[in-house]
Write a structure and sequence with these properties.
Strand content: 5-15%
Shape: globular
CATH superfamily: NADH Oxidase
CATH architecture: 3-Layer(aba) Sandwich
Largest sheet: 4 strands, antiparallel
Bound molecules: 3-iodo-tyrosine
Length: 224
C-alpha cells in the first residue's frame, strides 16, 4: 500500500455472531421492503433534528476520491416551498403536455403522476440534493470532481434508508428540467440539482400504486 502521503488509523470493527448477522440482515430487509413511494403527505410537523440526522447519515456515503460532492438543501420555509412548487409545476406542465414522448407517458399512467405537485407544499420539509461537478484545489484553481453521479446516488440511497428507519416517508421527485432549483435556492453554477425529496408523515388516506418488486432471481446472477 502506498501510504507515503497518507495518514492511516486502525479500522474500528466489531465482529458479531453469524446468528446476529442473519437476524440484522432480515430485519433490515423487512424494514426496507415496507418502504413505498407515496405522493400523499400530511402537513404534520417534523423536528429539524430528524432531518439533520438523515442528512448526516447520507453524508456517511463513500464518494469518489472522498470529495463528498453533495449539498443537501433542507427547506421548511412556507414561502420558499410555495415558490418552488410554482416553478416545479410550471416545468412539469410543459413536460407532461409537450416534452414527454408516448413511450415515457405510458409508463407513468399506472403511477398516477401529473404536473400537480401538492407534496412540495404539504410535506413539512423538502430536501433538494445538489451534485457538485467541481471542487476548489488548494491553489485556488477549479478542478473536476469524480464519479459525482454515483457518489450522490449512494448518498441519496442512504438518506432514503434513514428516513424509512426513523418512521417517516419520502419521495424521489425529479421536476425536469431542474435548473430553477439552483436559481431559487441560490446555489453556485457548479452545483446541479439531482432530486427533490419531500419528507414527512404520509397523509392519513395516503395511496400507493399496486406494484410488486422483482424477486431475487430476477435481479441477480450467481457464480458460486
Ligand atoms: N419528473 C416527473 C415525471 C416522472 C418521471 C418518472 I421516470 C417517474 O418515475 C415519475 C414521474 C414527475 O416527477 O412527475
Amino acid at each position: 500500500m502506498n501510504d507515503e502521503n497518507s495518514d492511516f488509523i486502525d479500522l474500528e470493527f466489531s465482529q458479531i455472531s453469524m446468528e446476529k448477522m442473519s437476524e440484522n440482515a432480515s430485519k433490515f430487509f423487512e424494514m426496507m421492503n415496507k418502504r413505498r413511494t407515496t405522493r400523499h403527505f400530511s402537513k404534520k410537523q417534523v423536528p429539524r433534528e430528524l432531518i439533520e440526522m438523515a442528512i448526516k447519515t447520507a453524508g456517511t456515503a463513500p464518494s469518489g476520491a472522498h470529495l463528498q460532492p453533495w449539498t443537501f438543501v433542507a427547506v421548511s420555509n412556507e414561502d420558499l416551498k410555495i415558490k418552488i412548487r410554482k416553478a416545479a409545476e410550471e416545468e412539469e406542465r410543459k413536460t407532461y403536455s409537450e416534452r414527454m414522448p408516448e413511450a415515457w407517458a405510458e409508463l407513468l399512467r399506472p403511477l398516477g403522476t401529473d404536473h400537480i405537485k401538492e407534496h412540495i407544499t404539504d410535506a413539512p420539509w423538502i430536501v433538494v440534493v445538489f451534485r457538485q461537478s467541481k471542487r476548489m484545489r488548494m491553489n485556488g484553481e477549479a478542478a473536476p470532481t469524480y464519479y459525482s453521479q454515483e457518489s450522490c446516488g449512494i448518498a441519496i440511497g442512504l438518506f432514503i434508508a434513514a428516513i424509512q428507519n426513523m418512521g417517516l416517508t419520502t419521495l424521489t421527485h425529479t421536476p425536469s428540467p431542474m435548473k430553477f432549483l439552483r436559481d431559487i435556492l441560490e446555489r453556485p453554477e457548479h452545483e446541479h440539482a439531482m432530486l427533490l425529496m419531500p419528507v414527512g408523515y404520509p397523509a392519513e388516506n395516503a395511496k400507493v400504486p399496486n406494484l410488486t418488486r422483482k424477486n431475487l432471481d430476477e435481479i441477480s446472477e450467481w457464480f458460486d
